[in-house]
């Protein structure tokens, strides 16, 4: 059983980014990209929820963005209400983490196997994830193992020589 992370998108953006001058769509895309990397690294399920009041959507919309479920609430509906529904409808997970610093939301979502992570906690977790990922990539490059090394190191000497001959037009 996987863990499920439900992130209050705008709550995260407004508590971690200098969003006063930035385009919200750019900040949303950046967040979804980071969450996608986090999801793949930790093999968890991830949903990010945004309020519609900051978009032009009239109805609730859901889409999959590189394996992260992105939900925009409908007009007049808060992201909090969607988060609550998701928490109470998700019984197939070992742990459910709700990422928000919204005090009201923190009080409503608690039940067995549901945990709240503040925005600052989750931001720190993402920073740790980035450091781990960078170390894994660096270690893979140095060791010449994994998916982060050159193809030359994976070919037999004979195959490599044949490839070089082909590339340089030698017979």
Summarize the structure.
By secondary structure, this protein is α/β, with parallel strands linked by helices.
Model description:
The chain is of the alpha/beta class and 171 residues long. It has a single domain (4-135), classed as 5'-nuclease (Rossmann fold, 3-Layer(aba) Sandwich). The chain contains 6 helices and 6 strands, in the order βααβββαβαβαα. The protein has helices at 9-16, 24-42, 79-89, 103-108, 119-143, 157-167; strands at 4-8, 45-50, 61-65, 68-72, 96-99, 114-117. Strands 3-4-2-1-5-6 form a 6-stranded mixed β-sheet. Strand 3 and strand 4 (68-72) form a beta hairpin.
Helix content: 40-55%
Helices, by number, come to: 6
Which CATH-level-2 architecture?
Answer: 3-Layer(aba) Sandwich
Strand order of the largest sheet: 3-4-2-1-5-6
Distance between the first and last residues' Cα? 55 Å
Which spans have pLDDT < 50 for at least 5 consecutive residues? none
Q: How many distinct folded domains? A: 1
Number of E-state strands: 6
Kindly provide the name of the CATH class.
Alpha Beta
| Outline type | elongated
CATH topology: Rossmann fold
Q: What is the average of the pLDDT values?
A: 81
CATH level-four homologous superfamily name: 5'-nuclease
Could you describe the largest sheet, including whether it forms a barrel? 6 strands, mixed
How do the SSEs run, as a string of H and E?
A: EHHEEEHEHEHH
What's the Cα radius of gyration?
21 Å
Class of secondary structure makeup: alpha/beta
Give the DSSP E fraction (strand runs of 2 or more residues): 15-25%
């Amino acid at each position: 059983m996987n863990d499920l992370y439900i992130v209050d998108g705008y709550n995260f953006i407004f508590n971690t980014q200098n969003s006063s001058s930035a385009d919200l769509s750019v900040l949303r895309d950046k967040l979804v990209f980071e969450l996608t990397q986090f999801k793949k690294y930790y093999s968890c399920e991830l949903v990010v929820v945004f309020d519609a009041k900051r978009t032009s959507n009239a109805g609730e919309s859901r889409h999959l963005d590189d394996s992260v479920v992105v939900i925009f609430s409908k007009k007049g509906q808060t992201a909090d209400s969607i988060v609550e529904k998701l928490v109470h409808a998700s019984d197939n997970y070992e742990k459910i983490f709700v990422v928000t610093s919204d005090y009201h939301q923190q009080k409503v979502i608690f039940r067995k196997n549901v945990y709240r992570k503040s925005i600052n906690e989750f931001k720190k977790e993402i920073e740790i994830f980035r450091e781990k990922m960078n170390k894994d990539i660096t270690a893979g490059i140095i060791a010449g193992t994994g998916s982060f090394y050159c193809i030359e190191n994976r070919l037999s000497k004979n195959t490599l020589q044949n490839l070089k001959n082909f590339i340089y037009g030698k017979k």
